[in-house]
User: Fold these one by one.
Assistant:
Number 1:
Amino acid sequence: LRSLKCRQSEYFDQQQRFASSTAPAADGSSSPSFSPSGGGTASPKVFVGHSIYKGKAALTVEPRAPEFTSLDSGAYKLSREGFVLLQFAPAAGTRVYDWSRKQVFSLSVTEIGNLIALGPRDSCEFFHDPFKGKSDEGKIRKVLKVEPLPDGSGHFFNLSVQNKLVNLDESIYIPVTKAEYTVLNSAFNFILPYLLGWHAYANSIKPNDRNRGNNANSRYGGDFEWSR
Amino acid sequence: LRSLKCRQSEYFDQQQRFASSTAPAADGSSSPSFSPSGGGTASPKVFVGHSIYKGKAALTVEPRAPEFTSLDSGAYKLSREGFVLLQFAPAAGTRVYDWSRKQVFSLSVTEIGNLIALGPRDSCEFFHDPFKGKSDEGKIRKVLKVEPLPDGSGHFFNLSVQNKLVNLDESIYIPVTKAEYTVLNSAFNFILPYLLGWHAYANSIKPNDRNRGNNANSRYGGDFEWSR
Amino acid sequence: LRSLKCRQSEYFDQQQRFASSTAPAADGSSSPSFSPSGGGTASPKVFVGHSIYKGKAALTVEPRAPEFTSLDSGAYKLSREGFVLLQFAPAAGTRVYDWSRKQVFSLSVTEIGNLIALGPRDSCEFFHDPFKGKSDEGKIRKVLKVEPLPDGSGHFFNLSVQNKLVNLDESIYIPVTKAEYTVLNSAFNFILPYLLGWHAYANSIKPNDRNRGNNANSRYGGDFEWSR
Amino acid sequence: LRSLKCRQSEYFDQQQRFASSTAPAADGSSSPSFSPSGGGTASPKVFVGHSIYKGKAALTVEPRAPEFTSLDSGAYKLSREGFVLLQFAPAAGTRVYDWSRKQVFSLSVTEIGNLIALGPRDSCEFFHDPFKGKSDEGKIRKVLKVEPLPDGSGHFFNLSVQNKLVNLDESIYIPVTKAEYTVLNSAFNFILPYLLGWHAYANSIKPNDRNRGNNANSRYGGDFEWSR
């Protein structure tokens, strides 16, 4: 049994975004994000979540949108990739789940890549500290383990949360069958380009758009790959 | 030959949706669905179905949309996942099919996941009782079996329906080649995120949308994963 | 070396569509297609094709749209699935191709499924007679063979056309590398749901659409699967 | 260890586009592209890029749109396929990257196909000369190598640039884990049909479009495949 240890630090990710001496055009690291209280036309919100209900727990999986910032040119750039939120709720009785006791875990794009690539006999482990780099660092520790079921019929998802602030130590398990995992994978594969914001670029590709900057940097003209 | 038994009870699924003591935001279990007789602007309807015609039977595969409910906030939430409807018709002669004798079977999202994940040598079986939890429970029993063809060239789809109300006991078989199964899988993979309603969320992700609630719960601020 | 023989008769397919005694709602077999000379607003046409250029021949791959018919209700139904057109042109010199001598072959949805599912060591063969069921049946015979290259680095595409009407017997070969085949597969996988028309159904699924017929046939009400 | 050598010459690609004696309708080789300074309504630009940050280097991956030209008929045709731009920046300190020293490499559609199809133990090598066919041919030589990591946990991406014009000889390495590669593959698979322009054709397929030319060349009428 192979066990991939995939320790991932969001703090590290965050720092990296702000550390580049000269960010490339597509790296939205420098300008602040919009305040959500801003005006402007809003898309109607839609709440979607796919749930798996089992005897001892329920798991709800929900996408969370990436963020964009506007540039002086009127263009937009991706400033933060989206993610997928996992919500685990323990059962409070037969087919009753106590969502007030839910525990959450947000999967980054690369963690989603881990889950998509996970073979039927692979296991994986992610570590999160929501306060990493803050004064409360180490107060909360979350571990998500995804391990193959002994009979090969699927995987166990196990979220452990140690919260020293409220003296909590909890672990929620839920078995996910191969078919359920296939549905998750299909949803993850679908949503991943949206989490990266690539759909926004893709949707902007129109045959009758005369203002594409691409032409100016024609690849075949030679100087597009000649960056220095 | 491995035989996955995947007994799935829609009644159980339904109950679960209504049993949670405190449903998460994305679990549309509490408010009633719209009546179809309501007003409002409607999209033009489109009927699509992909058919496989064979000597003794035909099989038509059609997607069925998920349902949404509106919230007081003006937002929408998924209230019921979509599904795929299988329609089996026996042949009534050479290349003639008797659709008046058709039998139907609706595949849930997880059952679709089963079919997508089915290996060339795997088989699968689903059990449905349309009246499960109703007074007529047990009166109709449907079994869909998907089994590999002996020569490995595809799978048999076999729908058996026992209907005690009209004293019917029928079984319709249709062989599906590897190529035909590939087409079904491609269609299933395409439609699955729509059945989950994730396309509606994805389509609402726009670079110039200043009203996203995401920002308020910034993942990197630490309290997004700090649910209690 | 395994050789799948996948003889497919378009005439048979066509006949089937018109032979059903009672067609299901989604099977658009009964009403005639629109004449292309009709009025109405048209989408701007876009010609796309992906080409593979080799020493002795070039191959261009182009999608062709499905067709819909309108119903009295104002709804639309798919009346004919789309396909993918392969165009083979022989080289007329170094990097020069003679498109006036091109030969074409249209891949049905199921034939596309065959190509998508084709393993690196598999081969496949399709037979077409454009006049099947017409008075000129047998006058033109086309065979597309897709066979693995001896070194496993890709597949040969070979289109043979025998045309007794103009006393022609031609064969065009083009090697397609694994990478080129991957691009074709990606394009085929993308376009397949469009060829089935499923995108039109998918795009009509909107959270705020109050007129869906789905609700009336609620799956959980029991009578949706109770077709008789 | 198998090493696929996939030398690809953009100059050759370019020449081919202009060399056909009679181009097929979908091969947009003959008319010039729009000047980017033209008027007309423009889509809001969106900059997206997915970055991988490691100890010694960072890699940013960005899609670049295909180009279309307009025809006298008012239709559009693809004139140049899109590509994916890789940008490599060396680290200038801990979590600091020097984008002023970045090196770029643009992946063609077929090169993307190579990366998508790359097995966990496969390696691949691409050679580019931005001045191929120009007077400065041979002055700049770029090699992108993608090789499996010794422990099988992912691939090394290595871009070497030899620039005789400025007497530069640089090599940037970055390890890409299996999970990160999965994210790249998912993004590549998503964007590939857009790079081919097939999304523009797909989006033009509407049920209520009465002006499709498809009908005139009905596949079942026999003369669609009868090209001569």
Note: Chain B has one domain: 3-12+49-201.
Number 2:
Amino acid sequence: MQRYFVPEEGWQESMVRITGDDRHHIDRVMRMQTGDSIICNAPEGRAAICTISNITDQYIAATINEWLDESKELPVEVTIAHGLPKSDKLELVLQKGTELGAASFIPFQAGRSIVKWDKKKAEKKLSRYQKIVKEASEQSHRTVVPEVEPFLDFDALLRKSEDYPVKIFAYEDEAKTKDFHGLSSILSGLEPGQKIIACIGPEGGYTIEEAEALKAHGFEPVRLGPRILRTETAPLYLLASISYHFEELRC
Amino acid sequence: MQRYFVPEEGWQESMVRITGDDRHHIDRVMRMQTGDSIICNAPEGRAAICTISNITDQYIAATINEWLDESKELPVEVTIAHGLPKSDKLELVLQKGTELGAASFIPFQAGRSIVKWDKKKAEKKLSRYQKIVKEASEQSHRTVVPEVEPFLDFDALLRKSEDYPVKIFAYEDEAKTKDFHGLSSILSGLEPGQKIIACIGPEGGYTIEEAEALKAHGFEPVRLGPRILRTETAPLYLLASISYHFEELRC
């Protein structure tokens, strides 16, 4: 069944009102009719099966039939802070990271990022990125849409990280030692609902100064398996491992 | 240090001879000089640090200095059998799947594959795919290059699967039940060195007939977390989970 995220103002007691791109998608792309069923997600994470009752050029109205009891969200809230990678790799991370359950994304300017963003460029990108995560959430049947937070410089990222009780960073140098710090021991220590921020370097990794600053701010270096992963593969490994740990292995 | 896979015929007792694209890469792309060091991988998985001793237009000669003791390979041999997906998604699976440790890949024609391949097209694609996995192996410091096996139809895939003692398939319907079969219990039962084949459906998943045939041939359905993953994300989740299970959690 097709799924749509409906913002707060679209919800009434027993009805949902859908406008904008989603109205167009239901009417023109899916060519649905009154009587057809869809799943509507509310902002706080709940979802309901709804039946389309009226299709107009301005909105689509649907009646709420049944609230669903779903558990599609990772039991811990994972934020991926990603040093700006080249070309469209960040879009891949946003799409796949959403499928894999990330709670939010923070793009940041890393010392070795080839791409440089200014404020104007960052704002323009942000609305595109929010569209990608919304669509990926619908596709993967998530019950909440991840946040894509405004672009930060490295110092602002360090300040922002103070909101998170658990902080890790993928650090290639850890993969070269036998005495690496275990991702599994960090995951095993997490409580349900806890927030964790994972910092991923751009191509070429962190500068030595960045790695030192991350450690000084309480980020623990982790390795993500013994192979060297590309920058865009690292967050996918991490999120899949977190899902496996909590949702499949149930450690 | 840059890493190159050198085929059997390039190895002599204390020397390596590199030709073709890799010769070009060392000479013209990396602009290396005699005296520079590289890592050369032999086909059976061993790797050595070598020093360039001679650069000609036909070959590059390098002296073997030291054999490395490396453990970069997953402790189990994972084959990803992927129902042909659309556009360049298979290339993404090959590149990322190689980084994540797959031992081999088998593309197959699934009932719901939009793309149809004939023998000629499959042969043309194969050499491109082999190049992708070779480059990804070098990038991720793997010690063996995964196989990309010739394209199969579904019946040939079923026959081929008899070579594998453990067989699983990602099945969306399993994700909808509470009584799903656990990936973790299958992984926990694997012995080091054992071969496992994982079958991934194309966009739209398997036909009912395919799912039944897979079960009848001993494939166990598994879910890959509670969210619905795109076809190209499923093998990455699976490989990352296998790496986490054996290489990080060390179950």
Note: The domain at 77-248 of chain A is CATH 3.40.1280.10 (Alpha/beta knot).
Number 3:
Amino acid sequence: MPEYKAPIRDIKFVMQELLDCDNHYQKLGYEDASLDMVDAIISEAAKFTEQVIAPINQSGDEQGCTWTNGEVTTPDGFKEAYQQYVEGGWPTLAQNVDFGGQGLPHSLNTAITELFSSANHSFAMYPGLSHGASATIEAHGSELQKSQFMPQLVEGSWTGTMCLTEPHCGTDLGMLRTKAELNDDGSYSLTGTKIFISAGEHDLSDNIVHIVIARIPGSPEGSKGISLFIVPKFNITDDGAVGDRNAVSCGSIEHKMGINANATCVINFDGAKGYLIGEVNRGLNCMFTFMNVARLGVATEGVAAAEASFQGALAYAKDRLQMRSLSGVKNPDGPADAIIVHPDVRRMLLTQKSIAEGGRALIAYLAQLVDIGHVSTCEEEKAAAETKLALLTPIAKAFLTELGLECTSHGVQVFGGHGFIKEWGMEQLMRDTKISCLYEGTTVIQALDLLARKILGSKGKILKPFGSEVTKFCLENADDDAMQEFIQPIMSFGGDWQKMTEKVGEKAMKNPDEIGAASVDYLMYSGYLTLAYFWAKMAKVAQDKLAQGTDEEAFYQAKVKTARFYFERILPRAKGHADCVENGGESMMALDADDFSF
Amino acid sequence: MPEYKAPIRDIKFVMQELLDCDNHYQKLGYEDASLDMVDAIISEAAKFTEQVIAPINQSGDEQGCTWTNGEVTTPDGFKEAYQQYVEGGWPTLAQNVDFGGQGLPHSLNTAITELFSSANHSFAMYPGLSHGASATIEAHGSELQKSQFMPQLVEGSWTGTMCLTEPHCGTDLGMLRTKAELNDDGSYSLTGTKIFISAGEHDLSDNIVHIVIARIPGSPEGSKGISLFIVPKFNITDDGAVGDRNAVSCGSIEHKMGINANATCVINFDGAKGYLIGEVNRGLNCMFTFMNVARLGVATEGVAAAEASFQGALAYAKDRLQMRSLSGVKNPDGPADAIIVHPDVRRMLLTQKSIAEGGRALIAYLAQLVDIGHVSTCEEEKAAAETKLALLTPIAKAFLTELGLECTSHGVQVFGGHGFIKEWGMEQLMRDTKISCLYEGTTVIQALDLLARKILGSKGKILKPFGSEVTKFCLENADDDAMQEFIQPIMSFGGDWQKMTEKVGEKAMKNPDEIGAASVDYLMYSGYLTLAYFWAKMAKVAQDKLAQGTDEEAFYQAKVKTARFYFERILPRAKGHADCVENGGESMMALDADDFSF
């Protein structure tokens, strides 16, 4: 199993040197988030994830969760680790002080989330889902609901879920059937079956707070007739304690490709007592409030997977001796050279490295936008941040998880046949990461959100704030010779992006299927270009540091060299995607469904 | 679990209409391989794989092989299925009549191999390895060895293995340590440990014949000091029967990402009795004789995986109702449209279909070249066939397995979250297929074989026979308007290929690392172009049939439309690879090994 080391130096580079989090936090009034505090928290998170969370990753996969008569047991060590997680105050980090939170910035929590995900994808999902539940109640719940559920969710003694999917509907939630009938006391009785409920049942916490979408009889059909409910596993007594069992049960858990240590549950509601959150029939709107944040969380999993796989592959590539370098023996005293001398091994490692580090920068940038959206008092700044976030979130989610999956496949490949063997831990990363391309909206759902809803839906207006930022950066560096290898491609690919967007828009007016036909290639192009921008920005910071003089020359040189690799060996892929978009959807729509196979 | 149906119509299209196997077999003197016989065998193989082999695929994955005190038990049903396989005479199909074979063409066996692989990757590996062992003994063994081992291997009552890898050496076999010491009776005593031995121990057959590479003390170091041995699990008595146990044992089996129903063994040789095959120190040469055939077998697994995943995804896409088509409701009576109406679902399905069908054509073509290499009496024809085979085998192996893996990932994606659940069988295809990118030489090993050893090593001569064939095809269709959408891109991409090859050659003269840096992108470009040629050929056949008039209009239309999809939506990817090759290896080699991480 690869030993996980939190990439502290790189996180600091991104947060402090690239994105000046100190200034960002002070401006937003996060007085507690001083540089020292940020450093201390990241160091502690590094220690905790390296020493407590990572060591139960492989055993957790091997053992998996077990279901017996409705009870789910998590793998050995998970309960204890979760206890330590709660005792360490980790769940409270970015939570509201009113409910026992530490009130630190969301972006600091995001940085730490990556460490948890790299160390143990399955474990990291438990708190991730609680966060979704508490955020929903905080934003839309009544005062009573907040007082009943928030403190325990914030503390972590209770955990949460999001119950959306049903057997016949995942993407298309308008088709849901779970019904909620009003009781005399103002509560509701929920009846129906939800599937794919991550952390739906387990032995980590004293109570589980399900956030459930359901239909109140008589509501409009489709997505406009969906309401949102809190359904606790155990009812709450009048004094707020855990009371008797609610009519919620776990019918079974799924056997999956990966994330085996996270229980994916069938949850049956058999007249379970639930409490309406927000207004009747506005349930999906309440859910969508948090879609960006949840999707950003999944995007982080892509980065986390690339990083974890990179670490494993790098250690192996330095250690494993096999064949001699084509350009001459590098390890004359050994029977062969370390495989890191071979160009293609480096190609795979640098692909992982450039996606992990580039993706980390993108995520950290987006997390700062979330901070601004949360607390900025400047409406203009807030609007710009939210517009950028709306544009870039689907790109980050789909692009970084698809590339994360590719990176874990490279990790297996660097190990050769050994990569296929469970013992080494590399194949688990590939199995665990595939889910990130599926949940919180599949890759094509992100692509349609980007192209149809956001870009074409806003007639391109959504592009402006981020587009202006990129243009400004290019203009600022127009006279910097050392930056031209990065600036020129961004301008060229960026120009093509604009033309491509216009063309797709025109085609879509005639035939809306052209949007779907273009969507994923369009998103991937956007992803390669977006990451190019962040790599150029990082190269700029590194070049400036090198020009100023630094005792970390190798670190900054590596940044510039990795940026160069990205531009020379990764960005060119965007061209193929552009040609696919250009070629349109006719060849995809030409076949009758019955003529796909004979 | 997706129900497997052998793609009989398409196999016939490829074998008969595209590659005129009737004429091919008659010319080579395969009198028994009449069209009727070919049809009958394929139909029987379809029935057998659909009814006997496919049904134990998922259960085999779930149960896996078990190891107890050196004995390996295959999953339920494998032993019975293998028995039926032997009783049906399947192992004997393309084997030499002198040893009990049916003497049918290799290419017919290859067509059938795809069915076995699609139905059950793990099962198909058992006979695959026996075939490697018998082919080695037939080509290099003594008359006594042939009489002792061939009849049982051909019949299938004994199975075989290839024992190459050791813990410290996989790709770099020159480092192997297993030693073979000469005994007084002319036999050898083998001592050492081999790993990753597929089918190294199991309960399917009466004996297991290991083909082992080892070093005779005093031999030259490296790959020139390797000899080849037969080491049976049970010694053979004087009258050829199974005798006492040899000192060969299975130390453990691996826990793997996939192919769980095939035992991947650690095999210990503790002074085991072995028999030299061929000459001392010529072991690797003997092994390499069969490298092309073995690699072609793995390439077939890529096609088989794409096909199996396509079938599962297609059935689901027609059945699963979710969302409405962007271009208008298609299923007004249902609550939503079948997801096959959505362009991106079609993009994924057509990617799978175009890789499966295009790959099938490439494999069938290569298998005919193997036929020619085996039995043609025309030296010129034989030489051309072997040259084409040498060029195209690494392309087929690496490109079709990488694309096969991609196709299985699309298969999971079409299912959404359900694709991640084991029950549906889609994720197993992805897990099983990853091994094909690793064994028999990883993707980069194929790429180096193609670019370094074969193309640059022959100063481009190896390109001529296949290059001439493609040029001839383009010229023949230069005046056919309907073919220009296919011919023009082949000429354009082909021209760029030539220039790219020359440039890489020039760069490599100055810096050999440029070969490794270009290799995988070069191979992928070659793969996309090669498949484009086969799609153009298939489109031509289909267009001719449509022009002549046919009662299978939909089938031939689908061929033309799928060809169009391939050219418009898959082939463009080659451009990104070309740019990566063009950009060279400097950015990959610039980082010191210690500077990859800080």
Note: Residues 8-288 of chain B form a domain with the Butyryl-CoA Dehydrogenase, subunit A; domain 2 fold (CATH 2.40.110.20).
